[in-house]
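Usage

Read records sequentially. Each one opens with the input sequence:
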Amino acid sequence: MRLHALSTLKPLAIFIWMTLLCPALFAAPYYLTGQILDVEWGAPVNGATVQIDNGAVMAFADNQGRFYLYGVAPTMHKLQTWGIAHEYAERIVYMPDGKSYDVGPIYIKKIDGVVFGKLVDSITGEPLVRATVQIDGGKIWRTQTDQFGNYLFYNVDRVPHSLQCWGYAYTYFQKGFYLNPQGSLKIDDISLSVIPNAVRGQVLNAVTKRPIVNATVQYDGGGAGMETKTNADGRFVLCNIPAGYHQLQVWGLAYNFVGLNFHHAVNAAEILGTIELMPIGGSISGRVVDATNGLPVLNATVQINGGAGVDSWKTTTDSNGEYILYNISDGVQKIQTWGYGYRFQEYDFDFFSENTNINDIALIPDPNTFTGRVLDADTRLPIEKSLIIMSDNNQWVKSESFSDGRFVVLNVRPETDYNSPAAYDITAEALDNDLVYLRSIHPGEGQNVNLGDFLLPKWRRK
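and closes with the structure output:
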């Protein structure tokens, strides 16, 4: 397994700092924070590296571009930032005594050799999520679009290239381009059309107006090739629809059935729009999120009155953090929720409605933990079962990432000497990806430290 150099500008200097302890560290429950943003997009740069004084303490930016550096002594420091596809930048910051400090937004530019753009639907203009984009057949450069339809390649050679892209049930598109001698290249938005003889739409919860994952969608009674499930965005596509009149049937667990008549013309691609499903009577629905970064919590347990031996009173959250409980009796009920690496929460709820949406439940991470996510650097998709190792002179702890890329290192036992805190070396690695490293301080005192997004490049990256 190779060690991945966190910056093309500083390939070995960071790792050398693993053996050094900077005197400008301080074990206190205060942190230095800020937000890393892309100059051109204005969007958060998740996975950007942020460090103090050449690597004495480090963090990665999270999904919001925000970073948290603990153990920074109250004095002047060099704050250094960069990303896999973004330039190195440095500024002087002053950490005040006795409180946390927010340096505000930090804008960073893309490095030379970056190609980026966006895919959208040709009719609706909506971003195409998880569509495939590649350069020259995908042997070196291949990725998927993010939640905004954006894609990005880095270290692209300055020779003529061909860009290819497509999505499930969307037409294939190809165009040539040439990268400028210097700088990056923004490709104009590419519009893809749905293939002929297909229908598509989106299924939403009629109460929350949010996507329903894994709802069943079929036409004319379903069967092989005539039914599908909604994705994480609640979207569906049915292909090879015969010409003529049909009925679309949609339902989900704890949701009422909906039937919709439509007519399909030869070689057409119909847009059926949004289809709202009403939860069945006596239901409670909502969403569970992480209190530190707002991300949905997958597989959190949500129950009423301890489950009370009723299957419909206990469930786990889906990939969007959504849950639904049903057949709930009127009156005061106890809602209880927790997840791996999160604290148990319980509160009373006076249920008196047929269908009730509860505000987001923000789970607080367990005390004395390190948390973060492991993502593929090319696609920004989660990496499951990535090996996380945390070590110092007294501890060596292993953990694994879940299917959403999230990981938790439990029971961190930090040093109590404020003038000489322990620095933890933390690595993340996966079978098909390079190893990535950072160094962090944990302040103890029941704190959770969010390490941000670990972006692991593929082995094939040049």
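Summary fields computed downstream for this record:
- The two ends are 15 Å apart (CA to CA).
- The chain has one helix and 37 strands.
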